[in-house]
């Protein structure tokens, strides 16, 4: 939704540079709002306040040089530092790398960028117009309702402003808000109202249709671009330089059989035509390697530069930020203190699936699913895969599809102004991403359900399936590989499997589990101990260049490591047919019973497996778009092909053995490609810990259910073995390494003798109604909260109980909502702020009152902050079991839970990030 449309639809009053006029007004620019808050309790004018700030004087809103990065498990500072707590040390975990507390980005000002040069930064970060702060709940305001009509509104949990970046959403509030919106639509009786209701019901289907269509188009462009760039390392097409090798030559079958293409010119022919002779093979190979390595390094470098300069977390400007009191706030890009060096998060790097899982669980990362990230991910992915690095493009397609889903959903206020509803579209987009990656719409839907999504009701499942189907159909028509198939390694077997082969399938499953567990362990330790604790931490581009150079050295001479990952998997999966001239790059053994004939092939495959596995460990996690699916499938397929060739050799050596009686004398009954497919599924299951969705993906790849039992058996064995060796898969380890606040609702915990007292925060700052609360005092409380790194939290609002023995909970106000309310009344520092425990507006409808306020016909008390207050927060007694508390966070999506004693007196608060920290500590103890 654009800013102008938001303003016009809400009839906001006041100029962009004037003061805000009410709770639902747009509070002008971030600079102006911050100046108002700076001047609370001061007689200085605006110019003097800004001059003092730029001259280095200390104010209540001065940046803190020692402030930590933000976005992870909380860094909590309590009023009582000596308070013993089992989660105290956990809360002081190092922050998420590269995510500074950047709440002050509602308009032009942005946080400092360390890696980007000023010139590029100025081009990429234009000033964005101010977005109305309270537009997030604006659709709840019904200007046409009358006092006599019952209006459905969120008076029970208050008005919300936009969620700040790196904070958790309030699922309950968003669910209530959507119910309010839908109920209001259903109450209309006119034909126009009925049409609006019908359109609203079909809007989700329309959006997922567009998302599926656009996802297929982007996938097609990425595949075609990657094919051309990958072949560019070897040469170019004489007739059309923009064509990949397979499109350059007319006789494609001849290319597969003999590798001859008259229209293709290698770089050795271009550089030194006279050396390209039969007796000058070494010189030609040397020239080809130099060109191969140089172009590979160039492609990887371009991808890395795009990732670093276009997707750094500190380079994003968003109109959906609410806070301006951040210690990291910068004004006009001029730092008031020397910025501390911190590692940033690169949104386009990696596969994106761990971050997508975190976002779908209710975490907000503004910019991660934006247009710039989409462009960087798509273009950078084509360059990174084409460089020949041991990575794949299938996993990043999930991130690309999610970006498209987020952008398309922003065209409708139904999804734009409701983070919980938008995650329904993102779940469907994830299914489309897997569908275009593997040509498996059913497997994509199950992958979204099993691995990615957090909230997946039946309605979302149907839409995800429809979105994946649209994406697969569109990609089928586009035909990215020129073969009429959705993926390059889509194959069809015509042989059945036999009972004796189950033993070998079990062995492949065990291999996949061992490989997956140790790959995850080694990659985690490499990222933690080497990449994040050596010079590589501050030189990501150098790391990419070194890894690319090492990859070219080890991969150039081996034909199976030199080819692309998708092409390697295709050849390993392929079935060798009798009489066919296509040997699939020598993988088809002409004399399976001759050990001297099969050993060179097995040795080459074994070398490719070891090289691919080792390179993937150090490659996954570098600062460019990179997936894990294809490299893992390649390693597993290599192992499976070796086992298949070995079984085939045994059959040829001992054809009359009892084991091979089921073949009935058929010497071609063993299909090495089938073993490759089973091994690939086992390895991928061991790495990612997916089961059902992976098995269905393999069924869709082979166009048959004949091999359902072998695949299912290997997948189950692989996951069982991997879980025994390493409980967490690669995605969970990446989440742990990045310290993303992801709550796994499927995980079971051992609570032992733990109690709520061990996780409850008793010393959180509160707002007492038995004391005088002025604008200035609340501003100081808010600043203290933000400086302690708890800007995702808020303030319990308490009053003295009637018996005088304790404090009773009357409400809760978030930090962002309090900041917005203080900005509105910043001119009156000594005025008293009220929090009414009963309905603040008597018998008048809230929507009528505030819509009239915007029109200026009714005067509202701007010092009454009851409108922002959650009057019905989730509460739990201190003697409740932790299982119940866990369900509050996992099933209800609570952002915070208030703890009371058995008499109903307030004791403390548990927010979602503190609960995650406690769960992490609990896991370490167990």
Q: Which key features would you list for this structure?
A:
mainly alpha, 33 helices, 926 residues, three-stranded mixed beta sheet, elongated
Q: What structural class is derived from the secondary structure elements?
A: mainly alpha
What kind of sheet is the major sheet?
Answer: 3 strands, mixed
- What count of helical segments does DSSP give? 33
Average predicted local confidence, pLDDT: 78
Give the DSSP E fraction (strand runs of 2 or more residues): under 5%
The strand order across the widest sheet is 3-4-5
E-strand count? 8
Distance between the termini: 47 Å
Radius of gyration: 30 Å
Low-confidence regions = 1-17, 43-131, 142-154, 326-342, 839-859
Helicity range? 40-55%
**Gross geometry:** elongated
Protein name: Chloride channel
Organism: Hygrophoropsis aurantiaca
Characterization of this structure:
This protein is mainly alpha-helical. It contains 33 helices and 8 strands. The protein has a 3-stranded mixed β-sheet. A hairpin with a 6-residue loop joins strand 4 and strand 5 (807-814). Helix 17 crosses helix 18 (458-478). The longest helix is centred in the first third of the chain and has 42 residues, at 191-232. The protein is elongated and about 95 Å long. The two termini are 47 Å apart.
Summarize the structure.
With 926 residues, the chain is mainly α. Helix content is 49%, strand content 4%. The model is unreliable at 1-17, 43-131, 142-154, 326-342 and 839-859 (pLDDT under 50).
């Amino acid at each position: 939704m654009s800013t102008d449309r938001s303003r016009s639809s809400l009839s906001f009053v006041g100029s962009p540079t004037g003061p805000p006029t009410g709770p639902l007004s747009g509070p002008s620019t971030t600079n102006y709002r911050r100046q108002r808050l700076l001047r609370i309790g001061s007689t200085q004018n605006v110019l003097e306040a800004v001059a003092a700030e730029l001259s280095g004087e200390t104010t209540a809103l001065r940046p803190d040089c020692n402030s930590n990065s933000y976005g992870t498990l909380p860094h909590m500072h309590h009023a009582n530092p000596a308070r013993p707590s089992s989660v105290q040390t956990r809360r002081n975990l190092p922050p998420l790398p590269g995510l500074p507390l950047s709440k002050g980005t509602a308009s032009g000002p942005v946080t400092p960028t360390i890696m980007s040069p000023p010139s590029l930064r100025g081009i990429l970060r234009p000033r964005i117009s101010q977005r109305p702060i309270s537009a997030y709940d604006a659709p709840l305001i019904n200007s046409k309702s009358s006092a006599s009509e019952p209006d459905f509104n969120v008076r029970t949990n208050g008005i919300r402003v936009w969620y700040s970046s790196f904070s958790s959403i309030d699922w309950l509030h968003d669910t209530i808000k959507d119910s309010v919106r839908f109920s209001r639509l259903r109450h209309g009786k006119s034909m126009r109202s009925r049409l609006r209701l019908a359109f609203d019901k079909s809007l989700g289907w329309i959006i997922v249709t567009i998302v599926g269509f656009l996802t297929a188009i982007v996938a097609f462009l990425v595949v075609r671009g990657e094919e051309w760039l990958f072949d560019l390392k070897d040469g170019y097409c004489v007739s059309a330089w923009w064509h990949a090798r397979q499109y350059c030559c007319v006789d494609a079958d001849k290319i597969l059989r003999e590798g001859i293409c008259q229209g293709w010119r290698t770089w050795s022919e271009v550089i030194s035509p006279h050396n390209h002779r039969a007796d000058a093979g070494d010189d030609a190979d040397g020239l080809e390697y130099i060109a191969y390595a140089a172009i590979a390094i160039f492609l990887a470098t371009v991808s890395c530069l795009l990732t670093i300069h276009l997707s750094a977390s500190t380079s994003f400007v968003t109109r959906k930020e609410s806070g301006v009191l951040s210690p990291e706030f910068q004004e006009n890009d001029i730092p008031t203190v020397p910025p501390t060096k911190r590692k940033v998060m690169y949104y386009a790097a990696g596969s994106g699936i761990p971050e997508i899982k975190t976002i779908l669980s209710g975490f907000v990362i503004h910019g991660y699913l934006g247009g710039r990230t989409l462009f960087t991910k798509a273009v950078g992915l084509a360059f990174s895969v084409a460089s020949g690095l041991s990575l794949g493009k299938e996993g990043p397609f999930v991130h690309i599809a999610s970006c498209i889903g987020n952008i398309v959903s922003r065209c409708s206020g139904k999804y734009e102004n409701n983070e919980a509803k938008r995650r329904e579209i993102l779940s469907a987009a994830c299914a489309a991403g897997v569908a275009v990656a593997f040509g498996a719409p059913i497997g994509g839907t199950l992958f979204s359900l099993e691995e990615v999504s957090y909230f997946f009701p039946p309605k979302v499942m149907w839409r995800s399936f429809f979105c994946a189907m649209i994406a697969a159909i569109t990609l089928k028509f586009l035909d990215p590989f020129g073969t009429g198939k959705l993926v390059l390694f889509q194959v069809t077997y015509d042989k059945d499997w036999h009972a004796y082969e189950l033993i070998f399938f079990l062995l492949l499953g065990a291999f996949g589990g061992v490989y997956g567990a140790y790959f995850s362990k080694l990659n985690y330790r490499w990222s933690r101990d080497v990449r994040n604790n050596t010079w590589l931490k501050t030189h990501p581009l150098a790391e990419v260049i070194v890894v690319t150079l090492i990859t070219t050295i080890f991969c150039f001479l081996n034909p199976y490591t030199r080819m692309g990952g998708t092409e390697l998997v295709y050849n390993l999966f392929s079935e060798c047919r009798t009489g066919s001239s296509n040997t699939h790059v020598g993988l088809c053994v002409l004399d399976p019973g001759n050990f001297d004939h099969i050993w060179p092939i097995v040795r080459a495959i074994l070398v490719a497996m070891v090289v691919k596995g080792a390179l993937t460990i150090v490659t996954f996690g570098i600062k460019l778009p990179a997936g894990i699916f294809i490299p893992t499938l390649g390693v597993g397929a290599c192992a499976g092909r070796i086992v298949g060739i070995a079984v085939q050799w045994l059959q040829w050596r001992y054809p009359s053995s009892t084991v091979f009686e089921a073949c009935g004398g058929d010497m071609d009954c063993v299909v090495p490609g089938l073993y490759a497919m089973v091994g690939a599924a086992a390895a991928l299951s061991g790495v990612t810990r997916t089961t059902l969705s992976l098995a269905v993906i393999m069924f869709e790849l082979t166009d048959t259910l004949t091999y359902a039992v072998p695949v299912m058996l290997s997948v189950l064995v692989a996951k069982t073995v991997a879980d025994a060796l390493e409980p967490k898969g690669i995605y969970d380890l990446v989440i742990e390494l990045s310290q993303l606040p992801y709550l796994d609702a499927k995980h079971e915990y051992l609570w032992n003798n733990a109690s709520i007292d061990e996780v409850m925060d008793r010393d959180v700052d509160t707002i007492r109604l038995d004391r005088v609360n002025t604008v200035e005092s609340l501003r100081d409380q808010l600043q203290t909260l933000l400086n302690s790194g708890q800007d995702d939290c808020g303030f319990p609002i308490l009053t003295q109980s009637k018996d005088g023995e304790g404090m009773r909970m009357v409400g809760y106000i978030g930090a962002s909502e309090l900041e917005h309310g203080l900005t509105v009344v910043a001119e009156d520092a000594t005025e008293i702020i009220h929090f009414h425990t009963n309905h603040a507006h008597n018998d008048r409808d809230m929507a009528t009152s505030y819509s009239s306020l915007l029109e200026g016909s009714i005067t509202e008390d701007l010092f009454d902050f009851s409108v922002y207050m959650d009057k019905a927060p989730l509460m739990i007694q201190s003697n409740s079991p932790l299982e119940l508390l866990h369900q509050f966070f996992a099933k209800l999506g609570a952002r915070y839970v208030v703890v009371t004693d058995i008499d109903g007196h307030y004791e403390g608060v548990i927010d979602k990030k503190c609960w995650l920290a406690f769960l992490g500590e609990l896991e370490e103890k167990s």
